[in-house]
UniProtKB/TrEMBL annotation:
WD repeat start and end residues: 345-379, 392-433
Annotated protein name in UniProt: WD repeat protein
Region (Disordered): 1-69
Pfam families: WD40 (PF00400)
GO biological process, one term: proteasome-mediated ubiquitin-dependent protein catabolic process
Compositionally biased spans, kind Acidic residues: 41-65
Keywords, sorted A to Z: Repeat, WD repeat
Source lineage: Eukaryota, Fungi, Dikarya, Ascomycota, Pezizomycotina
Length: 621
């Protein structure tokens, strides 16, 4: 996440803007060296508020590198020897293409990552150009390059074991479902999980950033990039009704989060601003939302400015307070009735991407998760001294989300190190121990940027002071703040944990870290709306292809139904909420038909949306 610029526009970037449109390739006429040249647009504000890059807090450091940018690579065929001309020519094509692919990735932003730059420097095509004046010094330079640690293979057994022994103990303890662990029963339960085939596909004109059921299952809300929250009556889980839409009036880039009050009467929602909007959920109340300013304190930050963005917001269990995580590396506790900030604690060294209360029945204990790779425990009654009650360490990249089981004991976190972790508050590290060990010193220093990079497992190492119980892997936490959750106690007996993923899927795990199931949202929604000219700036799939990133998912508390909220469509420029349920019958004889596509008002538009024909890979009939 990144500090906000006060002068940034409150309007989102043009949906039609795409750096891909400005990508031009030209070849110089030279018999010796082909050249590839990409002119980049000069647009400081757009990169600073990077889209896909940012819904996230990390849209930061782009500003310093703006201006007219040209990436130019000259590839020379060194030497006059024609002896192995044919063989060298084939090799040259391979190397050239590889270089072009690397640069093509960086060309979309005008920047190359450190890993890409190293790959370029090590290419024989470029080393023959760059490293020819003093071969001895050049060799020493490459040998001392920091990434040469890769030449020593890491222990392939360093990854967490599956199944996890601690996870098996939890499954037998009764804390996560029945304690009679039975592999046969486990397989049977897995067959009852929601399937990839969608019951219904709700289409939105903008990417959907989050969507959640209320605790009683009677209410669902979806937040999209157009600064609107759509509310649905889901008291009948398979027959939804849209009844209200509310807007955020000063939005910057997107809505970042929303939280429903315990009595379902109020919805708090935020953008990359310090203000929270609170709207009544009553469809008969058509008044404007209330505005709460969570930044009523003195100037802060290295420039001494007021203002910050809110990445996460939650109601307390009694509905009287809000807690928020901010781009100022802080946690804010706000009293709704008196409309004043009770605590504003700078509790992390980087953006606080997620906050939640430990126990839905108590407002005292809360958690925060940050880009500084740590999750922390806070006691509301002692926050005045700005000192955490405990800390969780184990991630080696920033946290994107945290979720509480609601029992005051267990917490789940998602991390940019492509890991999800389960923690027990009883194992939290004390503040003194945390400061003594300086666990942040062990985090990865590879320079990985999850907004545009692909994570290399070679960069992953276990944290020496990891105090988590179970580590779950297999999903993709890239591009945006992917969310994770505990499965509900009623409809699943709390047996599972699950997460969205950048590859267009929802991953469901047993508590022992073994994979219980996968819901493939991308396959379920493929080509259910026509291609249009809309592009998502800095799109990361091949232009023109159908792309899906599941950012959030919500399991119905009382029915075997899961809703996945996603960036979805051609160029990943639109959004969907898809309903997935357990269905043991391949044939569909009911009404409405499975795979039905509707708009955000739940109305069919056959001229625009097509029903899905995906059947979980099975044949109909």
């Amino acid at each position: 996440m990144a500090p906000l610029e006060g002068e940034r526009s409150s309007q989102p970037l043009s949906p039609d803007a795409s750096d891909d449109e400005n990508l031009n390739e030209s070849t110089r006429e030279s018999s010796e060296s082909p050249a590839y040249h990409w002119p980049m647009d000069e647009d400081e504000d757009e990169d600073a508020e990077d889209p896909d890059y940012e819904d996230e807090p990390d849209e930061e450091d782009e500003d310093d590198l703006q201006g007219t940018r040209d990436i130019e690579i000259l590839l020379e065929n060194g030497g006059d020897d024609d002896e192995d001309e044919d063989e060298d020519e084939i090799e040259g094509v391979t190397d050239t293409q590889r270089l072009v692919n690397i640069v093509r990735t960086g060309a979309r932003t005008g920047l190359l990552t450190r890993r890409q730059l190293i790959a370029l420097m090590r290419s024989p095509d470029l080393t023959s150009v760059f490293l020819q004046d003093n071969p001895g010094e050049d060799a020493e330079f490459l040998n001392n390059w920091p990434f040469n640690r890769r030449l020593t293979p890491k222990d392939p057994d360093r990854f967490p074991k599956v199944p996890s022994e601690q996870g098996l103990k939890l499954m037998r303890s009764g804390a996560f479902g029945a304690n009679d662990y039975n592999p046969r029963a486990k397989r049977h339960l897995a067959s009852l999980l929601p399937k990839s085939r969608a019951e219904k596909i709700i289409h939105f004109d903008d990417p959907v950033y989050s969507g959640q059921f209320s605790d009683d299952g009677n209410f669902f809300f979806a937040c999209s990039q157009d600064f609107k929250v759509r509310m649905y009556d889901t008291s009948s889980p398979y027959n939804w009704k849209h009844y209200k839409t509310v807007s955020y009036p000063w939005g910057q880039w997107t809505l970042t989060d929303a939280s429903l009050s315990p009595d379902n009467k109020w919805l708090a929602y935020t953008s990359i601003q310090s203000m929270v909007s609170i709207a009544p959920t009553d469809p008969n109340d058509t008044g404007d939302p209330y505005t709460l300013d969570l930044d009523n304190g003195p100037p802060h930050g290295w420039l001494g400015r007021r203002g910050f963005g809110i990445w996460s917001v939650r109601f307390s269990g009694d509905g009287r307070e809000l807690v928020a995580g901010t781009s100022a590396a802080s946690i804010v506790v706000y009293d709704i009735e008196s409309r004043r900030v009770l605590h504003h604690v700078r509790g992390h060294s980087d953006d606080v991407n997620a906050v939640c209360f430990a126990d839905k029945m108590s407002p005292h204990i809360l958690y925060s998760g940050s880009d500084d790779t740590t999750a922390k425990v806070w006691d509301r009654r002692s926050m005045g001294d700005h000192r955490e009650a405990g800390a969780f360490v184990g991630h080696i990249e920033g946290l994107t989300y945290i979720d509480s089981k609601g029992d005051g004991r267990y917490i789940l976190s998602n991390g940019k190190d492509q890991s999800m972790k389960l923690w027990d508050i009883r194992m939290a590290m004390s503040t003194d121990r945390f400061n003594e060990l300086d666990p942040i010193a062990y985090v990865n220093t590879s320079g990985f940027d999850y907004r545009g990079g692909i994570y290399d497992d070679e960069d992953w190492d276990p944290h020496p002071h990891d105090n988590s119980l179970v580590t779950f892997r297999g999903h993709k936490v890239l591009r945006t703040l992917i969310r994770c959750h505990f499965s509900p106690p009623m409809s699943t007996n709390s047996r599972y944990v699950y997460s969205g993923s950048t590859d267009g899927k929802v991953y469901i795990w047993n508590m022992d870290a073994s994979l219980a199931g996968i819901i493939d949202v991308k396959k379920a929604t493929m080509r259910t709306r026509p291609m249009d000219n809309r592009h998502r700036p800095h799109h990361f799939d091949e232009p023109g292809n159908w792309g899906t990133c599941v950012r959030d998912a919500s399991w119905h508390p009382n029915a075997p139904l899961l809703v996945a909220s996603a960036w979805n469509g051609y160029n990943m420029a639109r959004g969907t909420c898809t309903l997935h349920s357990y269905n043991d019958n391949v044939d569909d004889e009911g009404e409405p038909p499975m795979g039905q596509s509707v708009n955000h008002l739940l109305k069919e538009q056959p001229e625009l949306y097509q029903n899905s024909t995906y059947t979980n890979g099975l044949r109909l009939g």
